[in-house]
Amino acid sequence: MTVEETLNSLKRGAVEIIPEEDLRKKLESGRRLTIKLGLDPTRPDIHIGHAVVLRKMRQFQEFGHKVVIIIGDFTAMIGDPSGRSATRPPLTLEETRANARSYVEQVSKILLQDPQRFELRYNSEWLENLGFKEVIKLASQLTVAQMLEREDFKNRYTSGVPISIHEFLYPFAQGYDSVPIEADVEMGGTDQKFNLLVGREVQRAYGLPEQVAFIMPLLEGSDGRKMSKSYDNYIGINEEPAVIFKKLMQVIDPLLPRYFELCTDLEPEEIKGVLEKGGMVGAHRVLARLLTGAYAQSLIPPRLDRAFYEGLGYSLEAAGHDRDAGSVEVIRQAEERYYQVARNLIPEDIPTVAIPPAELSGGAIPVARLFTLAGLTASNGEAKRMIQNRGLRIDGEVVADPNAQIALEQPLVLQRGKDRFVRVEVLKGQTSNAERQT
Q1: What is the CATH number of the domain that holds 105?
Q2: Annotation-wise, does 229 bind a ligand?
Q3: 52-65 in b/e burial notation, b at 16+ Cβ within 10 A?
Q4: Is pLDDT of 88 > 60?
Q5: Binding of ATP: at which residues (predicted)?
Q6: H-assigned helices in 123-162
Q7: Considering just the CA atoms, what is the radius of gyration of the chain in Å?
Q8: Is the per-residue pLDDT at 89 higher than 90?
Q9: Residue 327 pLDDT more than 70?
Q10: With b meaning 16 or more CB within 10 Å and e meaning fewer, what string describes 269-282?
């Protein structure tokens, strides 16, 4: 493959490459490039929005380059202000490292772990012992006016929302990460553009060639808002296949083309064909199968394209008509569960919780206590509130009385909402309080 062909392949899906000519020159040099991505472990999960950038890094690896994942265990204690409307609460070093362990495991589902093409670093290695003299040197690279050009800072400043001085230091800390590893390219979403460009300034100050800022789009959550657990529109790459399938089937219709473009490698004309031939339901099904099948694997395939999809036993042209044609059992089970729930049926593969007989009085248990012991509610109070809102069911029937006593003479299926089920039964081999008293 020529340099131009490689460049064109890498450019696909990118929002901006600054400057593109520098990337071309670096590729023409023929040497192995160092591709950097910083991840602040503020949460323990990586979602498919992160995967948009990580899959592009995997592409760099396939071309023989080395990716360096920098876990921002130190910068997470500052809190990345990018896109924030308020100061982010800082984390302790212990909290960030606990989250980082989960990050490392999940990144390995997407990135090749060959030591020649992968390296993992923690920025506490160099930032924790950085002297005040170096901090002053870093801070001298930009003016306050330049910092206030950032959209998030500008909005907060004009709205009178406080900006702490330590938040100004975050871009410099992230930029300094590019110095010890001598990054050639730094990856990031559109919200990271300012920080990536600061990295170029910092490298110049330390006499290093400037990195290329490789900017990828941000993927919205399934409802169109920012992808976040608090909005329940978040799709984690390590979630159960049935959960991933369900969440992808719930992506709002207007976002479907964007999910195909950013999360798969189908060609534009193929995406158009799926949307037109299968309709929205069929197109959702193709997306859900593709990504469920990919993230169920220990290492996702390098390309999530027609060949991968058809290798699962499906036809791209029959998007709306081949629900049972899949050859991969994990997808079949996830899809079958989704349709069982959609038809108000109770899935068979649900967990069973044994209720200690000591919880029963006269063979019965308060309904709120039952749901709490089953793990479907956090407290008896929450269970009662959900019952009042008609949000809990037993064997498919809505629970109407929050003070009801439930007999556990046989296993029962408890349900919260549309798709959370638990089967409960009395723990065998023990007796209840009432039986012991007789």
Answers
A1: 3.40.50.620
A2: yes
A3: bbbbbbbbbbeeeb
A4: no
A5: 229
A6: 124-127, 132-139, 144-147, 151-158
A7: 26
A8: no
A9: no
A10: ebbebbbebbeeeb
Cα dihedral sign, 271-277-281-285:
negative
Q: Which amino acid is at 308?
A: F
- Burial of residue 320 (CB within 10 Å: 0-12, 13-18, 19+) is middle
Q: Which residues pair with 120 in a beta bridge?
A: 69
Q: Which amino acid is at 301?
A: P
Most confident range (mean pLDDT) of 93-97, 107-111, 346-350 is: 107-111
222 domain residue, yes or no: no
CA distance 433 to 430: 10
Same domain (yes/no): 337, 356: no
Last residue of a domain, one of 342, 371, 406: 342
pLDDT over 70, % of the chain = 92
What's the rounded Cα separation, in Å, for the pair 10 and 56? 7
Is residue 338 a contact partner of residue 385, using CB atoms and an 8 Å limit?
no
Domain boundary at 296, 321, 342, which?
A: 342
d(CA 250, CA 330): 19
In this structure, the answer to whether residues 134 and 282 fall within a common structural domain is no
pLDDT in tens, 247-258: 999 999 999 999
Residue 214's CB: how many other CB atoms inside 10 A? 27
pLDDT by residue (tens digit) across 404-416?
999 988 899 999 9
Q: Copy the structure tokens of residue 218.
A: 């941000």
pLDDT of 435 > 60? The answer is no
Dihedral angle over CA of 352, 358, 362, 364, nearest 10: -30
52, 262 in Cβ contact below 8 A? Answer: yes
Indicate whether 186 and 323 sit together in one domain: no
Q: Could you tell me the residue range of the domain that residue 16 belongs to?
A: 3-216
